[in-house]
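Please predict the structure of the following assembly.
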Amino acid sequence: MLPRRPSREPLMPKEIPPRFDPAEVEARWQRAWAEAGYFRAPADPKGAAFTIVLPPPNVTGVLTLGHMLGDTVQDVLARWHRMRGDAVLWLPGLDHAGLATQVAVRRHLAKERIRLEELPRVEVLSAIGRWKEEREATIRAQTEAGGFSVDWSRYRYTMDEASVRATREAFVRLFDAGLIYRGERIVNWDPRLRTAISNLEVVHREEEATLLYLEYPWADGSPGGIVVATVRPETIFGDVAVAVHPDDERHRAALGRTVRVPLTDRVVPVIADAAIDRAFGNGALKVTPAHDVLDHEIAVRHPELPVPPSILDEEARLAGDLVPAAFRGLDREKGRAAVTDALESAGFVRRKEAYRHSVARSERSDDVIEPRLSTQWFVRLPDLAPPVVEAVRSGAIRLHPDRWERTFFRWMEGLEDWCISRQVVWGHPIPVHYCESCGATIASVDAPQTCPKCHGARFRPDPDVLDTWFTSWMWPFATMGWPERTGDLARYYPTSVLVTGRDIMFFWVARMMMAGFRFTGERPFSHVFFTGMLRDDTGRKMSKHLGNSPEPLDLIRERGADALRFALLYPNPVDQDGPFTAATLEGGRNFLTKLWNLGRLLLSHVPEGAAAPAVAPALREGSALESRWILARWRETTRALDAALESFEFTQAATLLLQFVWHDLADRYVEMAKDALKGERGERARTEAREVLLFVFERTLRELHPFVPHVTEELWHALPHEGEALAVARWPSPAEAPDDPVALAQMEILWDGIRTLRNLRAESGVPATELPAGTIRATLAESEAILGDQAALLTRLGRVARLDPWSEPSPGWDPRARAVTPYAEYRLVIEAASPEAAEGLAREREKLSGILERTRHRLADEGFRSRAPAQVVAEAEEKVRELTERIRRIDGGAEPATSGVP
RNA sequence: GGGCGCGUAGUCUAGUGGUUAUGACGUCACCCUGACACGGUGAAGGUCGCCAGUUCGAAUCUGGCCGCGCCCA
């Protein structure tokens, strides 16, 4: 890096330092906003209500960059609506994340060589309690550091008292309606965590295994038997049959016969069932009803078959009377090896082959799921689905981006009952008691006093707890006091937008919809916005597991919350998976520095006691073109910005603002208005330039505020302003500035000239410090007028000493420094241009004649002339005219290349 | 195995029937110009994955193929 140049005495007032120091500024505004209570949702809202419930982060960990992305999107929405005058409630909270938290704490304890399973329940709870306190404090600090405008006065926790009541109430209502039942089913059993889990918590992975072909000998002692293929030989002790497809010719003769289960004395029948896949193995399946879903279904269809108890215990070790003593106590791996050995030495194995298949594992423990017949609680989800499907279909609830609707419908249509009971400590206990006298099942919000059936008074509570999602699915209304009819519920429910990652679309979003309609009769939200996933610089998804997700607080400390927020929204689309790298964050920081310096420049030109820009400056006849233009551009930008925000296009919104601030306001307007600002165009021009710049910058600060609240608040207070804080300032309207298509069109012509002269200078090799003279010839009436009027800007920004009327080169004047645009021709008066000047012109000619060629070709096509809309044909004809003319000019000016060149 | 999505300069990306294909990062050249070198100015860089089809006309629509990703079983 270059050494800092020797500092000149700055013109800036001392109050605004040359660099934005986020650490100090951000903390200061966060405090100020909190003290002013701007983010507390009013109890008596005047305007329309706008509600977001923050997806409660899990106490499992602390906030990741992904959370910051979601929070930023929500804050943009919340602040935008607040500025538009809506009564905004953004409700924060925390999720107890039952099983996930227990696993995290279990792992944490394991580091100290403590087994969670061996601790008394109360100690487990207090260990989890301590864990929660720590994480909660960090999460809160992270949220505050991000500058997120949540209403902390309404903070909720899925384990607080009100949540406990709401959870129990919901359970009892569904139970009473017959939508919750207890039953014996094959469930996904996690042997390491010793609990059932739901289908959604199971992940499937392709893994290598060995497929064994086992011969089950005929029970009558006749030679041979039936060959069954299996990857789980250790489960043969639970077999009750061998099944084949009823139409399978190969096994027709076997039907009705009996076989002996290898290594046992048990005799089982060969049965027919249409569910058998004839293509798999030999087409014969061993039926083990306690350890496989399909096998259980087969057993249900064949009531004559016994359903023996499980031959694996809850940690998936071989157990029970059916298992030969030699194998008892072995886990699945060892059991499989031992049983395989025994089968091989006893001669039952006909064949072994390597086999790749999909293995179900627990999302939480990564242990292989054991399908296990057990008694659990279930919610009849299919019965809750119809209003949800209808709402999404009708548009009452809209998903953004809407392509996710298909995925959503597919899942909704294939719903299965939801297993909600978990055999763990950390969670809401299932609100069910069993009467000790008559065995009645009593679901009640408060513990029962007497049994409604037999009036007994002694009860045994259900030992299980609820899946954490059984509480989370009520988040939009339980947080507002449901089942009580609270004021918040009346005012702020249904909520407006839910912002979340699509990884929990089924876990949470769909279930919230079901709960919303079931318990409140209304949609819980009208829009769902799914954010994308962040990837690191090597393209991997950021995850805690990979350890490639930077700690948000570190990034905030390094570059500031505003830089982080902006970088999360720009340039990579928030609704797509995309990279987030150090360069992304620097880009955000650079933009804020640009904004900051624009503010410093403006401040240096604002006189003491200048008024806040209440309305746009009225421009008159004779106002500067750039002033008319920037107001019109601001209007266009504001209109597009509103449209982008309305349609959840946050990256588009951020892009519009960045383009406007950097390229329109800083690069063009400020550069053009500089001499006016310095007073070189007179007092009137100076005042107008100040007023225009102040107005546009102030309105732009408002528009940027939802995205980068701290830096905008700081700048706003440094400049003339009216009102308490930008956080509660009014959102601008495009109508504040006049529409001015003439100014927009004229600026095109002027800018074309400036760009052309700059390009000519560079290509001709004019040293940066020299200002050559130039000549100009406008080729259209409109460009003649505008380029004449704006000659001062054209020469200053085009970096030429002066522009004379067109003249042909004379000796000592290199003719190659020449350019032709749609509006004018330009020459630089220089002795020797570098060859690139001529090359540039030649390249331009080549490109133009290519386009001309193609356009002529199109026009020559009868089909085009007769079928294309008249306007398209006319445009093509105009293009041919314009290009022909331009090429003619390029050629016409082509003096002998050597003329005048030494 | 099923479903969904995506392939546009080195990288990321805009663009849903007629544009001289957008912007950013990176690269190269010049420049510390009275806001900003976290900056300015200029430039180079693309057969819009491949093949068919529809159409007067395809980056854009349809089909197939190839590659990548995600979800589900």
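Chain A has a mean pLDDT of 88. Residues 650-677 of chain A form the longest helix (28 residues).
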